[in-house]
Design brief:
The structure is a homotetramer. By secondary structure, the first copy, chain A, is an alpha/beta fold. The first copy, chain A, folds into two domains: about 5-85, Alpha-Beta Plaits (2-Layer Sandwich); about 90-285, Formyl transferase, N-terminal domain (Rossmann fold, 3-Layer(aba) Sandwich). Chain A has eight helices and 14 strands. In chain A, strands 5, 6, 7, 8, 9, 10, 11 and 12 form an eight-stranded mixed sheet that branches. In chain A, helix 1 (about 20-30) runs antiparallel to helix 2 (about 60-75) and helix 7 (about 205-215) packs across helix 8 (about 250-270). The model of chain A has no long low-confidence stretch (mean pLDDT about 95). The interface of A and C includes residues 48, 234, 239, 244 and 282 of A.
Chain lengths: ~290, ~290, ~290, ~290
């Protein structure tokens, strides 16, 4: 049996018959649907769908499915669609600075085979994790950045990413702000982890400000990077309890666990095409 | 505009074309789907679906939809289906003994219009909440139960429930075990709240046993009542943190909040036909 | 046996010997300590303590304890201390507008004896919950407020509160902003519930703004009221998961459960003298 | 300044004056208390205390503190006490079998300096993680175990542990049951992680049984190992939400995050002497 499955994600203005049109096409071509999630946002009358079907016995081959679906269905109903396959092994670049907890967590998952993903390179503005990268056999590129060198260095980074056919980027507590130009090259394909429950404590030093405000929970937010810092579409968030006994450095320590778990959940959702971005919000089919 | 919506829930052995068959029928008859959730359990190859569509412009009327769908689709594909309408106001009977927190919480929600539900009667084996029932204008029936009177008293209860056209029953910390005969009259329509994270601490005095075992979390479980005590299909569960500082009576106090929230979530899911029971497990479409 | 216990809470600049001085005094006077919680904030070198001891066999009587402790210990070590007794039945005034979920929840707890508290009156700027108040036998005062009448009406409220010897006030989704003058009458004795995870979405319509931002969690915050709106010391917070399926009205519904639980936890902490305010932050001994 | 601090933990039958006796001694000898947590279990009238004080200016040196306290205070009041120092670097042995998520997580924390701990060796009944151990520069001993070799192999393990002056052992999903003899060598010094919310699903294959029962939450439990399998004193637990969409292998994946976080929290608590075991329960001062 062919265990490969196709995953269709799409969205468009809502109208009658969309689900029927899509599922008939799958069924008429011999596909058996495993999961279907559909949502109409009542505020905007916008339609979202994610369908996963077995390719065993399906009429169209991997190479022609997307084109055929576009011709037969998506074009006609105006669906902004994309199709991929569970056997696709996406290529994920990691950016890191000087805090390694997210990097370690991600590399350990990759090593253990928890995710179907390739890590072709790690980029850092500091040399700190060169040894770690070596342990895991991943090429490590140190690209320091200053205000003066930023444009050039980002160009170098983009070249490296292109060379390695990178599908998406994960900022593992990478402490440089990406330029608008850079961000525009990978729309909805750069995932950042912010160490607060956004929109609270956007910007710098969120744990210091959380401590000062005396909050009883700290948070972490994984989001896609857009031109506006800390304002991109949120993929996943979580919070953890703190008390007066927790100084800033305790919040930092407790926050690390939150950050790595929230970031890894977001990566998993992205890898499985469970996230659809629309405007500045996400639909996350779980 | 007709704001009423139909909700179809169903399940059957999986095969190709099920979603297409169902959604084509809705679409061909002029329905616009608002939500569709579908699931195939890979372990048993069993198919589950919940669809909600607008009745505005739908060809069939409320009275004939179910029959027509059975004839056109369900019979042919073998779907065990049921259809109801968001405007239906279900009739919920409450059973209570001597602890009132769940009862108060439910009655306050009903009073505030949070749920689209009718409470035609409260049944208790004790007179304690007669005044509370009066406050909310709900008829209250005291039906004491002993080993000798149980069969007779349950018969009386069943008569009352039938008289009041009760759709489902909620046991709000009702401390009597229902007989198998009684439970069989309302399959998957009696919701109980157990004050532990089942299957831990099934049976009596769960907080005492939780305290003795030194657990760091207490739990609550809402489930449908079946012939086997505390073994029915689980609808909803949650846990809350406790510490060595919490004596049994503190667990009881903290547990009350857990119990009322978990039970109310389960009632809400039931009211919206978000729960499908299969074997001893539930599919909960959220 | 006398089951009454004394609770001492206090804070001052840290120095050596504080705990010893306090506990020696209790021990020398025949008290047996049941709980002691102590904390030194390393950032400010400030000392906080809460001690609870059995009065059985204690040398000093209820009336003289506070004075004696002040003379013997607090004055000497500079401790800002207060002593009360577990048998004290505090008097809590409730303020409400048009949303009743917190009010119901609190009144049901009081009725069931969950808390050792008296509710001498409810004040509202709307008549909506007059019937509810009657059900629970609590005097209800409708005091409508406009920009013009605000000063006069608040004066009337303060008179009522004084008449009823109110110890503290709970704003149960009370939709009027208290004046600085009013707030200053009950420092750290007015508890408000804000329907967001502060400091996110301070101000009006937090659920609308949470929905717009696409957050994956909603929150609630109980805090003491100060002159700065939504900026007072936080007592308790919690969050709950939402998804793209939750429209604003679903967030409102889900948020109600969060608000009532968080507010009730804060009230319980206040009732047990578990909260010490220092600057704009709280130490919460749990 | 000497940043080192002493941590005293102790317990005994409750009586008047215990806190005073202990804190007077610290204060009289020039110590300044940073944290003090005390608890009397009302069910058993047993007293528990944890005190942490600055050694700057303390009369007694590290070597004599424990003896002096025993002579001056503990002997007299009958306190079962132990004293250690925040500068002590405990030596932790790791046992692992074929699942690496906890091992990776722990080694990454050690490498990053998150904990003040030494890992002198890893012991496994399989060679799988030899490479991982090498990456982190930790000696790795493969000690396969069969029913026949168990007694001999455990003897070898105990020798290795003794040679390396191991303070405590962490079972990182180690799939061998330790013999009673082995467990008795390290009382309250072997931490295990069980992949369920104990006492639910004690024993083998908890995720399979959780799936079968249809629970809505999975859990993980860190506990000290005693002679009774899965029955030792619980240090920490947590739960995570699952749904009908989660097959057993999804529960396994989601459970890994829970297991590693819960185990690491337990190790942190143990490292900081925040756990006192009494009977089969723990007091965890947080």
């Amino acid at each position: 049996m062919n265990p490969d499955r196709a995953i269709l994600t799409g969205h468009c203005a809502d109208k009658k018959g969309l689900v029927a049109a899509i599922t008939e096409w799958i069924s008429d071509n011999g596909g058996n649907i495993l999961h279907l999630d559909q949502h109409v946002d009542p505020a905007t009358d916008h339609f979202f769908i994610r369908v996963e079907w077995h390719l065993e016995g399906f009429v169209h081959g991997r190479e022609t499915i997307a084109h055929q679906f576009q011709t037969d269905v998506a074009g006609r109903i105006g669906l902004d669609a994309s199709i991929r396959f569970t056997s696709d092994r996406l290529r994920m670049a990691l950016f890191v600075s000087r805090l390694g907890h997210c990097l370690w967590d991600i590399l350990a998952r990759c090593e253990s085979g928890e995710w179907n993903v390739e890590v072709p390179l790690i980029i850092s503005n500091h040399p700190d994790f060169e040894g770690t990268a070596q342990q895991f056999g991943v090429p490590f590129h140190v690209i320091p950045i200053t205000a003066e060198t930023k444009a050039d260095q980002e160009r170098r980074e983009l070249e490296l990413l292109a060379e390695h056919n990178v599908d998406f980027i994960v900022l593992c507590r990478y402490m440089q702000v990406l330029s608008a130009d850079f961000a525009a090259q990978y729309p909805n394909r750069i995932i950042n982890i912010h160490h607060s429950f956004l929109p609270a404590f956007a910007g710098a030093k969120p744990y210091h400000r959380a401590h000062e405000r005396g909050v009883k929970l700290i948070g972490a937010t994984a989001h896609y990077v857009t031109l506006d810092l800390d304002e991109g579409p949120i993929i996943e968030q979580d919070t953890a309890r703190v008390s007066h006994r927790d100084a800033v450095q305790d919040m930092v320590r407790l926050g690390k666990d939150l950050e790595k778990i929230v970031l890894s959940r977001a990566i998993f959702l992205h890898l499985n095409s469970q996230v659809i971005v629309h405007g500045n919000r996400t639909v996350v089919f779980t």
